[in-house]
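Take a specimen:
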Amino acid sequence: MRRSVYFLAIGLFMCMNTMAQHSDPPNSAQTFIKLQDSLKNLGYQVVNNPSEAERYNASYTMIKTLVSALKLNNSFNFGFDSLKTISILTSPDRRFRIFSWHVLNNDGSYRYYGTIQMNNAGGRLQMFPLVDHSAEIKNPQDSTLNSGHWYGAQYYKVIPVTYNVKVPYYILLGWKGNTVKSTKKVIDILYFKDNKAWFGMPVFYGNKESVNKHRIVFEYNRQVSMMLNYIPAEGMIVFDHLVPPSTEMAGSPELFGPDLSYDGFKIDRGRLKFVDNLELKNSPSEIDDLYNDPKKPSKEIINKLK
């Protein structure tokens, strides 16, 4: 059942680029609100329904409903602000926005869904459906991927890098529930070239673990939280330093956790330079939010992001 619904969902998303955008009906505001309410109810089922099959059915219906909403004229300007189970991020330059969400499987693993909506002149609908192939990507940190072959995640921050670069790109910070034992977080790179959306670029440097990696993937124990966020004033991505409980467990990332020290990547001449042993000062305008997990759904949703 899970597999059949997955391929139906792919088919729906893949059709979106070929669909002409409808003219704006007289009651478009009410139509947006009605579709948003439907998405909100479906999102609750995606997260909370005890049946895996029903969670996937709700996600499938949510895709159809989202397509209907995005086909409306001026859909890019509708914020879907009441949705809590779908992450919706608009790039600071308003070039695009990215939708992402997850479905929890009964075995504790996850599948991710999403799409990128471009902000085209005249409101022409252009989408890049995101198709999760995480299970098949054996070396994610070394892989250049695209929207049809995506290392799925639920994103909570987008950071543009447009100076001192040949190809402008966007840093994506994402949460990636993994298994019953571990959670992952991701620093990914998104860019657009040849009318395609690409993920991964070798912009990292500064230590042997990150040099020339296309993305950075952190894995840690599911029972703990990891801070990964961005300080705009410093141009710095900051994150918890993860360590094993003992040196004998260095090969078991599902046991890793924070050690109360912090590292980062600083945007430096168009690349991301590793910096270790950061001293984070307590600033209510910047630092307080950095210790929180990605934006959590409303209280009734039990599957919180860690």
